[in-house]
Amino acid sequence: MFIAFEGGDGAGKSTQVRLLADALRARGREVLVTRQPGGTELGAAIRDLVLHGDHVSPRAEALLFAADKAHHVDLVIRPALAAGQVVVTDRYTDSSVAYQGAGRDLGADEVHDLQMWAVDSLVPDLTVVVDVSPEEGRRRRGEVHDRLEAEADAFHASIREHYLAMARGNPQRYLVLDGTRPPDELHAQVLERVEALGIEAPAVDP
Ligand code: TYD
């Protein structure tokens, strides 16, 4: 099973990733937690370039995020899924569709196609969108911003709209959470949805 968490900067995804991983492990599942960009040595280098470097042209930015995912899926995610682990990732292809496609105006369809090519069409079983307004996200992030976080609220507003539109278009595969609710409440909603996907502990050999 493959679960992705998505949302704007400062939405509280990472807390939900951790709570879900703990809950699944308590049920006896092996869980791999990972994040994008990053999660491999090459990914960490790409992350540095794209988040902390100087200006990166928008198409180069899209390609760098795609390269990170291609490598990550090949080296980390597919092997873990093949070994029967549950993979929980903090961001995945929808981040690029929203940030580069909608935020940077490169075209959501084109960026979606690029991302699908990069990951060889590996799609999560469930994508959880943790939704907060750009203002709330900015408030939670505080004073330190990476290259993307430093963008104006209008950039973050179009990202948010695009996440919500993707979720509306495919309610089977998405769960949208109100990120202003308490973390425990959100976690309960995630768990309920994951359980509905059939996440019972693997059978133990007698
Ligand atoms: P990160 O520090 O992981 O942010 P967060 O804790 O909010 O997840 O930084 C990832 C940043 O990179 C975030 O601003 C979103 C952006 N991003 C893209 O623009 N495209 C992508 O494909 C991915 C994976 C992330």
**Count of structural domains:** 1
Question: Could you say which small molecules are bound to this protein?
Answer: thymidine-5'-diphosphate
What does the main sheet amount to? 5 strands, parallel
Class of secondary structure makeup: alpha/beta
Could you tell me the CATH topology label.
Rossmann fold
pLDDT averaged over residues: 94
Question: Residue ranges: pLDDT <50 for 5 or more in a row?
Answer: none
CATH superfamily: P-loop containing nucleotide triphosphate hydrolases
**What is the CATH-assigned architecture?**
3-Layer(aba) Sandwich
CATH class: Alpha Beta
Account of the 3D structure:
With 206 residues, the chain is an alpha/beta fold. It has a single domain, classed as 3-Layer(aba) Sandwich (Rossmann fold), CATH 3.40.50.300. The chain has helices at residues 13-26, 41-52, 58-82, 93-103, 108-118, 134-141, 153-169, 183-196, and strands at residues 2-7, 31-35, 86-90, 126-131, 174-178. It has a five-stranded parallel sheet with strand order 2-3-1-4-5, sandwiched between helices. Helix 3 (58-82) packs antiparallel against helix 4, helix 3 crosses helix 5 and helix 4 runs antiparallel to helix 5 (108-118). The longest helix has 25 residues, at 58-82. The chain is globular and about 45 Å long. The structure holds thymidine-5'-diphosphate. Thymidine-5'-diphosphate (TYD) is lined by residues 9, 13-14, 35-37, 51, 65, 90-91, 95-96, 99-100, 146, 148-149. Residues 9, 13-14, 35-37, 51, 65, 90-91, 95-96, 99-100, 146, 148-149 line the site of thymidine-5'-diphosphate (TYD).
